[in-house]
Design goal:
2 copies of one chain form a homodimer.
Chain A lengths: L1 H19 L6 H38 L1 H22 L12 H10 L4 H30 L2 H23 L3 H23 L4 H28 L5 H27 L5 H5 L5 H4 L2 H11 L14 H26 L6 H31 L1 E2 L3 H25 L12 H9 L4 H35 L3 E2 H9 L8 H14 L3
Parallel strand pairs in A: 1-2
Chain lengths: 497, 497
């Protein structure tokens, strides 16, 4: 700014000369020109760098999840088709009138998942029909009650219906299923009721508008379902699968980290559980959209999507406990090594057993077959929990030298315990907290097991052995191999959503 | 169904007779008629009951938060005004053309909070302008490149721009600020590019469309800001305040519950913290909308809204730990009474001190003044934590009868300890876990304190004493009394959102 001001008051001339002969300039002028040039260069470089970073980020986004790019191309295709369709004017005369509703429908209705698109399409069509009929009725009444009352009736009806419909959008059950339809209802009702047309012309108009909307929605549904469809139901299913794997990883990782047996691999996965803490909103919207979807892949029309929400909630309750484990790891009062050692094997056993249970649950969901080993694994986990509780009991022996001491409590340790008699329990707190949180997590995992078993019953998963024997009888309807691969790919590509 | 069929084949007649003389009917017919009547009655009653319950729920919703009702009335007013405005046709000829954009704008743009409305209005206006200019340019090029190339150029440009714009909606920074604008951009671009009009007519059209949109958005902004405005910023502020109170309540409640000192009042508030676990999405959207709002109440235009998100995250981290406390309360291994008693006073002290700190933080935010006592309270909380740690230390003395025993460990207790030497530590686990989670919570509260202090610096809160002395000098600009009351009312009415 200061440089620019000086430039304006005479120094500017020097700079112009400088274009031809920069060597002859006085140092001050060269400095000024240089500074201006530098400033400009920096500004441009900064701008280019910013744009470059933005593009880089966008590229990463696309590379991480190519399905997003495919979705964009799908929108492009649908919109180009509908645009050119009307540009060529084979059906109506010009775009000014109703044809724009088809273009608008495609823009507004095309969503990432099939379920969301269907939800918006059906809401749009039925919202329009309902509001149109009602508006034609009100319009008829208004026209027949004389010039004076006409605007009054229309005004009052718009006011009442718009207010009531807006209010209904606050009601959770309406919001979940008909939020968009309600908005379209208000829109169509006001437009039709307010239009100055005669009722017989209105029917023509309504017919045209509805047909253009149906053309738009059909196009969206066809493109959405035919070109690389993304099903909300499968997204939800993959999300739950992914979160289960993450829960298992985090659980193993934390125990390993706490007892210093963490490998680099495990350390990376430590914070995987954080995703679960915040996935509630995504799960709910996916479940809402999934129920609009027809049967696809291995999912029926009436697949119990709501049960996935319960599984998600149960997993989240585990994740909260893992978040509390975090505190133990960062705690300044790390327990003395020998006590940690005393509990490490049983703690690690509990964590690895619980994580096996979760992995088995993930397998149940992935293969959509009931597991014959899950009860065994839960039993093992509970045994590990009991062992841990026993180890905690023997820990009390450590504090009571008169008792018989457990095997891994040798003379030196006892001495160190006696000399530092003030520290032990305080030092032990972190280990005991860690262990008891593990026990709590194990009990919360049982809740997850229950929810998954409910899902297996509701969705009528087959028992693994039955399934195998059926497959041997050349029936591949339950887990077709390529669908399975497809599923794995989906999960991989979803990894970074 | 079966009953209806039988009715059709002769039995119907008997029923008609029954209307006059029900006593004379054969028992079977009476049974049938009765059953049909009962079925119908039940169906109608069921339907009426369902509708009644729905209305009841809706009524409760409105009674709990009258601002929702006000919002609906506001939408009704805005829509009626714009509808009648066009119904009277003072500006344009008929609604068929561009006037509908004004109605549509009001329906689509009017949101619950001022911030959301402003966000949508500005996005709509600028999205339309940008897309309109670009589309006119593309249209001009297409028209001038001959009949053959015209549809090709238009199709390709629609495809590329629609795909690119759709992709940009996936980029988080674009999504947060310009999601709606991008959609409007795609919509306007396709509509204008595809329209068969000549360029000079297009300018007329664009002018009309833009002016109707501006009329619609202005009406929304005026009604939204003048009639009982709901500010997204204030909503966020109240949400954080409310959550802080809930955190304090839950914390106190849990300690009281665990040590059986819970009053009925406290028990009700126990699960208040659950709201905090799931408030992330609301907080983020409110913060996103708040930055579009002009200065209002005690908030400047550039109020540091993002800092509230950090405070929210810090509080959530506390809430996760409280969720883990839950496990201790439900734990089967409740510690023996005398050990619980040993720790109860210090645990209760920690919980009440932490909750005082949170209450003081809430006060800082509510009054928007720096507190002079917060450091003192944090110090007290830390002292209480130290006392608790000391009590945990003396607990180790309980296991070591050679040590001097603390005062509240009398002879009988020692005996009971010795006889049940296997149980204590296992029984103690729950208490120790509870205590160490309390300690962890206290340390997480310090993180909340830090974030609130950052907010106080960023938003330039005044020191309480300065503030008072200023007020004594008849300057009421900082905490005007009625604004304060207004705030309290807002918080009260928001209580059930």
């Amino acid at each position: 700014m200061a440089g620019q001001k000086e430039m304006g008051s005479g120094v500017e001339w020097k700079i112009r000369v400088a274009d031809g002969s920069s060597e002859t300039l006085a140092p001050q002028a060269a400095g000024l020109a240089g500074r201006v040039w530098l400033g400009l260069k920096n500004m441009i470089a900064g701008f280019v760098l910013k744009v470059w970073r933005f593009l880089e980020k966008a590229w990463d986004l696309g590379a991480d999840d190519p399905r997003k790019v495919i979705h964009c191309l799908k929108v492009g295709i649908a919109l180009t088709v509908v645009s050119l369709f009307y540009y060529m004017r084979p059906l109506y005369d010009g775009v000014g009138g109703n044809a724009m509703w088809a273009v608008m429908t495609v823009v507004v209705v095309f969503e990432n998942t099939v379920g969301a698109t269907l939800y918006k399409c059906l809401n749009r069509v039925f919202g329009t029909i309902l509001a149109g009929l009602l508006a034609v009725g009100v319009h008829w009444v208004a026209v027949h009650s004389g010039e004076k009352f006409e605007p009054l009736i229309i005004g009052v009806s718009v006011f009442i219906l718009a207010s009531a419909a807006t209010f209904s959008r606050f009601i959770p059950s309406v919001k979940a299923r008909f939020d968009y339809g309600t908005m379209i209802f208000i829109l169509t009702f006001s437009l039709v009721a307010v239009s100055g047309y005669r009722v017989d012309k209105l029917f023509d108009l309504a017919h045209q508008r509805l047909s253009t909307i149906i053309i738009g929605t059909s196009l969206c549904i066809i493109v959405g379902m035919v070109v690389c469809p993304i099903w909300a139901g499968r997204e939800l299913y993959s999300l739950i699968n992914r979160n289960m794997d993450k829960l298992a990883n985090s659980l193993e990782g934390y125990a390993a980290e706490y007892f210093n047996q963490s490998e680099e691999e495990a350390h990376k996965k430590l914070l995987d559980y954080k995703c679960i803490l915040n996935s509630k909103a995504t799960e709910e919207s996916m479940a809402n959209f999934a129920r609009w979807e027809p049967a696809h892949g291995r999912f029926n029309f009436r697949h119990p999507w709501k049960q996935y929400l319960k599984i998600g909630a149960a997993m989240r309750s585990c994740a909260y406990c893992i978040e509390a484990l975090n505190g133990c790891i960062n705690s300044a009062n790390q327990g003395p090594e020998f006590i940690k050692k005393h509990l490490s094997s049983s703690c690690l056993k509990v964590s690895s057993d619980s994580s096996s249970v979760i992995k088995e649950l993930a397998k149940i969901i992935k293969t959509m077959t009931k597991s014959s080993t899950i009860d065994l694994l839960v039993g093992e986990m509970n045994n590990a929990v009991e062992d841990l509780q026993n180890d905690l009991k023997t820990l009390s022996g450590l504090f009571n030298p008169e008792d018989e001491t457990p095997e891994n409590n040798n003379e030196t340790q006892k001495t160190s315990l006696k000399t530092t008699t003030e520290i032990p329990l305080l030092g032990v707190i972190s280990v005991v907290t860690f262990a008891s949180l593990l026990i709590e997590i194990a009990s919360r995992i049982e809740a997850v097991v229950e929810e998954v078993e409910k899902l297996a019953n509701l969705a009528e998963f087959q028992v693994m052995d039955q399934c195998k024997s059926k497959q041997n009888q050349a029936s591949t309807e339950i887990v077709p191999a390529d669908d399975q691969n497809d599923e794995d790919n989906t999960i991989k590509t979803l990894e970074k959503v």
